UniProtKB/TrEMBL annotation:
<dbReference type="InterPro" id="IPR011032">
    <property type="entry name" value="GroES-like_sf"/>
</dbReference>
<keyword id="KW-0862">Zinc</keyword>
<dbReference type="InterPro" id="IPR013149">
    <property type="entry name" value="ADH-like_C"/>
</dbReference>
<dbReference type="Pfam" id="PF08240">
    <property type="entry name" value="ADH_N"/>
</dbReference>
<keyword id="KW-0560">Oxidoreductase</keyword>
<feature type="domain" description="Alcohol dehydrogenase-like N-terminal">
    <location>
        <begin position="39"/>
        <end position="155"/>
    </location>
</feature>
<dbReference type="InterPro" id="IPR036291">
    <property type="entry name" value="NAD(P)-bd_dom_sf"/>
</dbReference>
<dbReference type="Pfam" id="PF00107">
    <property type="entry name" value="ADH_zinc_N"/>
</dbReference>
<protein>
    <recommendedName>
        <fullName>Alcohol dehydrogenase-like C-terminal domain-containing protein</fullName>
    </recommendedName>
</protein>
<dbReference type="InterPro" id="IPR013154">
    <property type="entry name" value="ADH-like_N"/>
</dbReference>
<keyword id="KW-0479">Metal-binding</keyword>
<comment type="similarity">
    <text>Belongs to the zinc-containing alcohol dehydrogenase family.</text>
</comment>
<feature type="domain" description="Alcohol dehydrogenase-like C-terminal">
    <location>
        <begin position="212"/>
        <end position="345"/>
    </location>
</feature>
Length: 395
């Protein structure tokens, strides 16, 4: 296990990494050279790395995500800076950082080339993003990782990890691993997305999955007056409400696949609805909630589409036009979203699951840490957990 004590680490010559040498074939733990430090980069000792609900289907090829091989697999992580490129201006050796997997071309400032991709997950959608990933392919399922300086976001370890009795927020490091999941919905719901305001009523659909349940918690932390959770599984919906930080502000509407019934369920709640946040998986393309939730919005309402859909879905264009509805698509989040999110976290405005404070939103708790060689059980567990929590690698 990586020590949380920042002192005394020297870089070894080799380290262990979870590698895939042939696309979609089972990965193996290999001993490989530790990456060399280069200008513009940091080498970090990985402490914990996220496993997403669909990691298994990314790496066994069923999801069809494209990436180059050989590859060290990975996702978002918390890691400590072990070495720094000579041009680092702010980061210090020993800093504890959140590693953002959203890689962006440094020479594509305006984003025209769409030179962005997800580290070790997907090579993006342009020639520029594919070129960038061929250079920056290796992810965080390893003891050490080389990361772009601008994707290392420093965490105030004292503030976050010291016990409540000593003026800290009392988190365990694994509690912080909810951040990468909440950050996705912060991208869509925060200031660079549809910008939810205190008092807003927000529909989250579907609300029972890992990103959906994190979005529900985020809305409440950002001051939503009411969160309407839509989902097929009514018992999970009920748990989502009862474990939330403000159960009295959460309402549930079952998804029936019939948009008119879903719409009636929303209207029966009464009151105005400001925002509809969609985080559907691909298989939900025939769900009725796209139309129902858009129809239920107030005049001037906002929609944010973050779901991983490939097929088109029916939308009520007449409603969108007559009610002045704004539709925003969002992929991931911007670097300043990460900064803002960490600031809100360190201020205690956004709270993560924490035994000490009793904040325990559904799906917000780390239920197990896996070694790299336990990858199969780790991926299987992540895919089966739903909103029961999350698992991580501890390389
Ligand atoms: N835009 C972005 O930047 C971004 C970032 C990350 C993820 N995503 C996308 O987010 C999506 C969700 O990821 P996740 O990890 O939260 O997935 P997940 O944990 O598997 O949750 C899936 C959710 O969808 C519901 N669902 C499944 N099939 C459905 C159907 N046919 N009709 C209605 N609801 C259905 C599930 O509810 P049940 O309990 O009823 O099955 C559950 O609430 C993914 O497709 C991913 O691509 C987008």
């Amino acid at each position: 296990m990586t020590s949380l004590d920042p002192t005394g680490e020297t870089l070894p010559e080799t380290h262990l990494a979870l590698r895939q040498n042939v696309y979609a074939e089972p990965p193996i733990v290999e001993r490989i050279p530790v990456p060399q430090i280069l200008p513009g980069t940091a080498i970090l000792r990985v402490h914990l790395a996220t496993i997403i609900s669909y990691s298994r289907s990314i790496y066994d090829g069923t999801r069809g995500y494209q990436y180059p091989v050989p590859l060290t697999l990975g996702s978002g992580a918390i890691a400590r800076v072990a070495a720094l490129g000579a041009d680092a201006t702010k980061l210090k050796v020993g800093d504890l950082c959140l590693l953002d997997v959203t890689m962006r071309g440094r020479d594509d400032i305006g984003g025209e080339e769409e030179a962005s991709f997800l580290s070790a997950i997907h090579h993006g959608h342009t020639e520029a993003s594919k070129k960038l990933m061929s250079e920056w392919r290796d992810g965080t399922y390893a003891e050490y990782v080389r990361w772009p300086l601008e994707n290392c976001h420093v965490l105030n370890q004292q503030k976050l990890l010291l016990p409540l009795t000593e003026g800290g927020l009392g988190y365990k490091v694994e509690d912080l691993m909810l951040m990468p999941t909440m950050l996705v919905s912060y991208g869509g719901l925060g200031p660079n997305g549809v910008g939810i305001q205190a008092g807003d009523t927000v529909i989250v659909a579907p609300a029972t999955g890992s990103f959906g349940s994190a979005a529900v918690h985020l809305c409440l932390e950002l001051g939503a007056g009411r969160v309407i959770c839509m989902g097929r599984n009514t018992s999970v919906l009920e748990k989502l409400k009862m474990t939330s930080v403000f159960p009295e502000r959460v309402s549930c509407v079952p998804l029936t696949k019939d948009w008119q019934k879903d719409y009636a369920g929303l209207k029966d709640l009464g009151g105005k609805i400001d925002v509809f946040f969609d985080i559907s998986p691909r298989v939900a393309h025939d769900s009725g909630h796209f139309k129902a939730a858009t129809m239920a919005l107030r005049y001037g309402g906002r929609v944010c589409f973050m779901g991983g859909l490939r097929e088109d879905v029916p939308l009520p264009l007449s409603k969108i036009m007559h009610s002045d509805i704004t539709i925003k698509g969002k992929w991931m989040f911007k670097p300043d979203d990460v900064k803002k999110f960490i600031e809100l976290l360190e201020l205690g405005v956004i709270r993560l699951s924490n035994e000490g404070t009793g904040v325990q939103p559904l799906g917000g708790r780390c239920v197990k840490k896996f070694r790299l060689d336990e990858w199969k059980e780790a991926f299987d567990t992540a895919s089966e957990l739903g909103s029961a929590g999350f698992v991580v690698f501890e390389p």
